[in-house]
């Protein structure tokens, strides 16, 4: 039996009506669609500093290492953690799903959890929360408690989370691009796009990326980022832009930071195992809230993605469920746990997997191809630090627009759904916190249900969750505690 025959036998090509060529094409397609995360995840998670050493953007900052070196470390961890998750997906779940650190959860990590102006906990403790969430996910998946967990959370909140995260990503991306800036009069306003070449370039790069995506060009986000970076490099070389400036309140390189290229940082030892330090000196309730938020978003984002991509691939049964869903969920859970141990935020299943499925990919061979391509991408790790954030964050705005479509699943004609969903969506971007948005929806759901006489539709667990969040908000905003964690 040849190698190709062995692959066909192991992954069940005949059963799924596919072949090696189709699976490889599906894997390459999925890789091109989701590979932007290699650049974007490090730029979101890593802290940046002003020339005077003050903090410009919250995130992971490692003593003794430059911002560029930290970015490269996180890029390595991103690739390795993603590959591990996809190898589990390939050989254990045998499904064509790609996995990587999730957009939205990495923003929650950097802009809410470790942000000194919000929760302000250490990045090590944030990683400890990721690992804890991953272990809980593994245990719940192993004992088959998925259905109970899904039923515990109000349906309108589940449907609203995706749209809320989309708006949250949008404001982060638009600020980084210089399109939206701070305003003393209106909080935010339009930036000086016409007079700032970086902001203008970011707008043009965004429009190019959206145009490519609309035309169905494979790898459109990657092409858009790399094309915009090339123009930024030219503008830097001819002196149109300066090496460093403030955009959206962040210190930004003016173009392609070529100085980072010869300083490739593959030693990730400062990140690996750092989560263990994070378990010291934690405040139980605040830590539990962070773990809960990571778990909630990861669990339901993954469940929704599996169903959506499964539908595109014809994997669902007559009841609309994905058979053996616990297996791909386990791949997600293991990826999250390993990722937290290595030094990145929560790993989740990517909706971009649908692109590979549309090309005919049907088995874990697709995930295997994507995993191998991610490992090969380790050679371009220096690019993660060289690409300006105002360019890489184009991806956040593109993904944000796509996530807004989730709003159509909400029953807006039913006020007991519209109110919790609306609060979830609105509170997320305006408080700069995914956790606060989820909490607002969970608190309001039993209240409005009871108000209209539908109290029998509210489960005891939902009341307990709502009460826990009320206590948290009181403690958080009353001044009783100076710091949550």
From TrEMBL:
Any one GO molecular-function label of the UniProt entry: purine nucleobase transmembrane transporter activity
Q: What is this protein called?
A: NCS2 family permease
- Mind telling me which residue stretches traverse the membrane in this protein? 73-92, 99-119, 125-145, 157-177, 197-214, 221-251, 271-297, 365-384, 390-410, 422-448, 460-481
InterPro entries registered for this protein in UniProt: Azg-like (IPR045018), Azg-like_bact_archaea (IPR026033), NCS2 (IPR006043)
Transmembrane as UniProt keyword? yes
Regarding the membrane, this protein is recorded as: Multi-pass membrane protein
Pfam families reported in the protein's UniProt record? Xan_ur_permease (PF00860)
Could you tell me where this protein is found in the cell? Cell membrane
Q: Which UniProt keywords apply?
A: Cell membrane, Membrane, Transmembrane, Transmembrane helix, Transport
**GO CC, any one term:** plasma membrane
The record's comment on protein family reads: Belongs to the nucleobase:cation symporter-2 (NCS2) (TC 2.A.40) family. Azg-like subfamily.
